[in-house]
Each structure stands twice: as structure tokens, then as C-alpha cells.
Amino acid sequence: DLIVHVRDITHPETILQKATVLSVLKNLNLPSHLLDSIVEVHNKVDLIERYKPTEENALAISALHGHGLEELKQEIEKKILTATGKKILTINVNLEGPQLSWLYKEATVQEVEVMPEDGTAMVKVIISSSAFGRYKNLFPN
Questions:
Q1: pLDDT tier, 56 (very low <50, low <70, confident <90, very high otherwise)
Q2: What is the dihedral of CA 21, 26, 28, 32, to 10 degrees?
Q3: Which 3 state secondary structure label does DSSP give 60?
Q4: Residue 130's domain spans which residues?
Q5: How many domains does the chain have?
Q6: Between the CA of residue 113 and those of 110, 122, 138, what are the distances in Å?
Q7: Tens digits of residue pLDDT in 66-119
Q8: Same structural domain for residues 39 and 93?
Q9: In this structure, are residues 32 and 48 in contact, taking their beta carbons and an 8 Å threshold?
Q10: Residue 91: which of 129, 121, 130 has the closest Cα?
């Protein structure tokens, strides 16, 4: 669904390495949407003072120090959701009904926050548009 190209930005041949990787990927005859949505990651930015990527859409990280990893995670999540046609939703469900069980079967449940005072839960899910449509048809309230 997604290609993440991590480069050692301190390597003297980093530009040549990128060109080589892109050439190999193109020769694999991958779908164009994969090649067009590559996440470019510049690692080891902690070794270069005040590093700023000059390449458009490149993310600067330091895996060693954790710098930029949250942004990288968000970018990967966004692109994966786009590529797979899924979305992240928070749905309020009645715990006395079958909704929560249905969501566990048909979606990826990430969090469940139970509201004991009213017998409901806020459920954070990753779900396809078609599954969410079925959910709304089965549980209109």
C-alpha cells in the first residue's frame, strides 16, 4: 500500500542512493500510484546542525533521538488510509446492543472508552466506507 524510503542523509552519496532506489523501483513495474506516493524520510538529522530538507515532502527524523517520528507516523497513517479507502472514526455505541461486537468483526477497533453512567461507549475504529455504510443501515440510531 505504501513505500517508505528512509535515507541516511549524512551519507556522502545520499543523492545517488536515492536515484538508484527510484530506478530499481521503476524497473519493478510497480503501479504508478505507489511511486507517486512514496514517503521520503531523511534520517540522522541529529548529525547535521539545523537540518532542513530541501526536497519537497521529505520528512526529517532522528531515529536515535526520536525527533520527527510522530510526524512520520501521522504521514504514514494518512497515506495508508487514503490508499486503502479507510477512515478513522469515533462512534458512540449502546453497550446493550450488538454494535460493539459488529465493529470488532467488521472493522479494526483501536480504543473503547466506556461511559458507565449511560451504558454507552465511544469506540475509535478504522473502517472502510462500505463497512461504515452497512453499520449505518444496521444501526440507524
A1: confident
A2: 120
A3: strand
A4: 85-138
A5: 2
A6: 10, 5, 22
A7: 999 999 999 999 999 988 899 999 999 999 999 999 999 999 999 999 999 999
A8: no
A9: no
A10: 121
Per-residue confidence (pLDDT) for residue 118, from 0 to 100: 94
- Which cell goes with 72? 512520520
Cell 466506507 found at: 129
Give the Cα separation of 56 and 41 in Å (integer): 11
DSSP-derived 3-state class of residue 119: coil
- Indicate if the alpha-carbon torsion angle 95, 113, 136, 125 is positive or negative: negative
Question: What is the gyration radius of the CA atoms in the chain, in angstroms?
Answer: 21
- pLDDT tens-digit profile of 23-53? 999 999 999 989 989 999 999 999 999 999 9
Geometric angle at alpha carbon 120, from 80 and 97, rounded to 5°: 90
pTM of the predicted model as reported, rounded to 2 decimal places: 0.77
> Do 7 and 51 share a domain, yes or no?
yes
**Same domain membership, residue 73 and residue 18:** yes
Same domain, 54 and 105: no
Three cell numbers written together for 97: 446492543
